[in-house]
Amino acid sequence: MRWLHEKDIENIAIGATVLGTGGGGDPYIGKMMALSAIKKFGPVQVISVDELNEDDWVLPASGMGSPSVLVEKIPSFEQLSAPLQAYEKAVGKKTDVVMPIEVGGVNSLIPVAVAAMNGIPILDGDAMGRAFPEAQMVTFHLDGLKPKIATIGDEQGNTVTIQPVDGFWSEKLARNITISMGGSSIVCDYGITGEQAQKSVIPGTLTLAQEIGALLSKNRTAQIHPIEQMLKLLKGYRLFKGKATHTKRGIQGGFTRGEAQFDGTDNFNQQACTLHFQNEHLLAEINGKPIAMTPDLIAVLDEETGMPITTEGLKYGARVVIVAFPAHDKWRSKMGIDTAGPRYFQYPYDYRPLESLVKEHASK
Questions:
Q1: Lowest mean pLDDT among 87-101, 138-152, 218-232, 294-308
Q2: For the purposes of burial, counting CB atoms within 10 Å of the CB of 264, is it exposed (0-12), middle (13-18) or buried (19 or more)?
Q3: Which of 276, 284, 280, 278 is nearest to 252 (CA)?
Q4: Bridge partners (DSSP) listed for residue 266
Q5: How many whole angstroms separate alpha carbon 178 and alpha carbon 166?
Q6: What's the confidence (pLDDT) of residue 222?
Q7: What residue ranges in the chain does DSSP mark as E strands?
Q8: Residue 26: which of 83, 65, 55 has the closest Cα?
Q9: Does the model's pTM come out above 0.85?
């Protein structure tokens, strides 16, 4: 058991953006929301999955929609509160613990703000171990759990409660409601017991995000670059180093979709890299061949500082290092790959683990 203070929020925002694979929302917005809530309502207690009681009621709170829209529509305290209140009314239960549905610059910190406002703890864990673009792409779905109730709220004060039959319908209905709300909303869904959370949640991801943020934000006195230190921590790989030469993005179906192209520099100067994204980076190709693919994690980092760059924050001329990390084992199962693998997103590849793709590329 511990408490989140203002400095902790700074580090979580950075680390969650790395694990958010380019999506999960703008970290500055997430940081400002969480800091404002902590300043007004006090620090937030963090509890581990092991500290949950079996009958605790655990409720995820998150943002849905295009990250590009959220930049223009920062949620108010009232908007953050409304879906939780509507959810509690619908199920007739008070929330004991809130949690992130995913790791991301906004979606790791929205529940921090909600926890501060309601004086309840936040769980050190999430249901993805990264960020994914669709509502059914959660470990709860992999374990056969259904959302049953979802509540969606916007900045106008509208709140909608739905009863989807499964995660796919939750995604479809909530996404269309979010589009009608202007492309951005706050959502509560997949309410579960403490016992269910202990089986399904990926533990320790808030702490991991905080560790990554502390690593990247510390003074540059170490001989080893923080990117290399982070790769060691996450058992990751440096895929590419280069300059952004072209970025194509647009809002389609409530998502920010597109691709980014890079020309290699230094040891990669004879190579070109393309990243494909739907809110999050989902596929990396070097010279037209896959080097990393969903559900494994792909992140773009500033070459000099190591700070993560989101899909909507990437600009022409940016000097970057592209890295990747293995996904949690739950996502490498058949169910995980069927749910969030490259074929689901209509990329022309069967899933291959990051480690084998990197090894194959290095041998050529």
A1: 218-232
A2: middle
A3: 278
A4: none
A5: 18
A6: 61
A7: 2-4, 44-47, 57-65, 97-99, 122-123, 125-126, 150-153, 159-162, 184-189, 192-193, 202-203, 237-252, 255-264, 272-278, 280-286, 289-293, 297-302, 319-325
A8: 65
A9: yes
pLDDT of 73 above 90: no
C-beta neighbour count of 248 within 10 angstroms: 9
Long-range CB pairs of 283-291, under 8 A, 24+ apart, other chains included = 283/342, 283/345, 283/347, 283/349, 284/239, 284/240, 284/322, 284/324, 286/239, 286/240, 286/361, 289/361, 290/342, 290/349, 290/352, 290/357, 291/239, 291/240, 291/324, 291/357, 291/358, 291/361
Burial 221-243 (b: 16+ CB within 10 A, else e): eeeeebbbbbbeebebbbbbbbe
Q: Give the CA distances from residue 282 to residues 38, 132, 222, 260, 285, in Å, rounded to whole numbers and listed in that order.
A: 33, 9, 32, 12, 10
- The per-residue DSSP string of 145-168 comes to -----EEEE-TTS-EEEE--SSHH
Place of tokens 């993005």: 249
CB 230 within 8 A of CB 27: no
Question: pLDDT tens digits for 269-279?
Answer: 999 999 999 98
How high does pLDDT run on average in the chain?
93
Per-residue model confidence (pLDDT) at position 345:
95
> Letter for the amino acid at 290?
P
Phi, psi of 4 (to 5 degrees): -95, 125
| Average pLDDT, integer, range 334-362 | 96
DSSP state of 292: E
Residue 152: beta bridge partners? Answer: 160, 187
Beta carbons within 10 angstroms of residue 361's beta carbon? 17
Tell me: the pLDDT tens digits for 237-275?
A: 999 999 999 999 887 776 778 999 999 999 999 999 999
Contact 130, 55 (CB under 8 A): no
CA distances from 234 to 19, 58, 120, 182, 314 (A): 10, 27, 30, 37, 23
Q: How confident is the model at residue 220 (pLDDT cuts 50, 70, 90)?
A: low
DSSP conformation class of 328: P
Q: What's the residue count for the chain? A: 364
Torsion of CA 297, 174, 67, 113, to 10 degrees: -90
Lookup: tokens for 54: 């079996």
